[in-house]
Amino acid sequence: MKNDIATVERISELHSFDEIIDVRSPAEFAEDHIPGSINCPVLDNQQRIEIGTLYKQVSPFAAKKLGAAYVSENIARHLRAHFVERPRSWRPLIVCWRGGQRSGSMTYVFRRIGWDAQQLEGGYKTYRRLVVDKLAELPRQLRFTVICGATGSAKSRILQAIGRIGEQVLDLEELACHKGSVLGVLPDSPQPSQKMFESRLLTALQSLDPHRPVYVEAESRKIGSLQVPAALIETMRASDCLNIEASFDARVDFLLRDYDYFLAAPERLNACLHPLRNLQSTETIQRWQDYARDGQWRDLVSELLALHYDPLYKRSQTRNYSGFSAPANFVSDDLTPAGVDTLALAVCRR
Predict the structure, then answer these.
(1) Eight-class DSSP state of 142
(2) Predicted local confidence at residue 2, as pLDDT
């Protein structure tokens, strides 16, 4: 094996390097990257498109000439801006898409300087394969306790409060940047790509102690546009459950607080309601949209719970979560922050 090529067979081996430098374009890096890596592209987004077009429409030789010029300029710029002060003992790992010319170019320059730079064999695709393999295995080694409850039962807030007490939690909605329902889109917080979600998820799972329980909120297979990996959702659905049984009025009050950002943007809410037209009558959807425009928020939330969310919950929970057949119940008519803390403490003491 060449001494400038790093063959990595486990995610943990990546931590043996002093720094991980991803030389792919900013767009590639934004879609997903090795956690903790930095982006020093040898071709920026526009340059990558330009070189690819030149390769196809003119010739590979013409593309390589211009590409070499861009790569050389960019490596020099990164060297001056980021790495010139690194000591001789510095040992970076250089990553591109497949472990080809882009990472090879920076590795060559850095090794000529005298650093023990290594090029990741297989590039980002090697890392991605390791993530997929680990996500098929690791969730089955953990012991989950699933927090169930109808929409508006403050499950996410209770989960976070359990974490503050010191118990292990896995907050899938936080990782997915989505609250999980049809109205779950967060303002100014777009969801990550599926690959980035899985990278974040694996990092979270690897931080958990398999000898201690892990609290997680009951989820469907999709959180917004993102898919929960099969091994995780299957393990969750076979796990013990507990049920938050909050009063209807407490749930309405909680949702009015937790989704208060919709109050200033009724048209955004109405756009989120539009997909429900396949589940509710045209008249019902129109009435709900009128409630939003007129500021009749309590009427809107009450009907959404009674006519949409509660029937959906009753149909899905027993079918999907085997532990829900006999869950521990926690009854409350107070979902204020203080009430949530009280519920979290009761759950941890059960």
Answers:
(1) S
(2) 67
> Whole-structure pTM over 0.70, yes or no?
yes
* Alpha-carbon span 341 to 19, nearest angstrom: 40
Tell me the C-alpha distance between 102 and 67, whole Å.
10
177 as an active site residue: the answer is: no
User: What integer pLDDT is reported at residue 313 of this predicted model?
Assistant: 87
CA distances from 6 to 21, 101, 119, 271 (A): 13, 15, 6, 49
Q: Which domains does the chain have, with CATH numbers?
A: 5-133 (3.40.250.10), 142-349 (3.40.50)
Cβ burial, residue 340 (10 Å; 0-12/13-18/19+): buried
Q: For residue 129, give the amino acid letter.
A: R
Burial environment of residue 245 by CB neighbours within 10 A (0 to 12, 13 to 18, 19 or more): middle
Contact indicator for 201, 175 with CB cutoff of 8 Å? yes
Identify the residue whose tokens are 């990472």: 103
Q: CA-to-CA distance for 246 and 290, rounded, in angstroms?
A: 28
CB-based contacts of 172, cutoff 8 Å, min separation 6: 201, 216, 217, 219, 223, 228
Bridge partners of residue 292, in order along the sequence: none
Give 23-65 pLDDT, tens digit per residue. Answer: 999 999 999 999 999 999 999 999 999 999 999 999 999 999 9
Cα 115 from Cα 97, distance rounded (Å): 22
Residue 91 Ramachandran class (φ > 0 left, ψ -120 to 50 alpha, else beta)? beta
347: amino acid identity, one letter: V
Q: What are 345's two structure tokens?
A: 């403490």
Nearest to 252 by CA among 212, 193, 306, 302: 302
The candidate with the shortest Cα–Cα distance to 112, out of 85, 79, 81, 82, is 79
Given the residues 96, 148, 177, 241, select the one marked as catalytic: 96
* Pairwise CA distance, residues 328 & 297, whole Å: 32
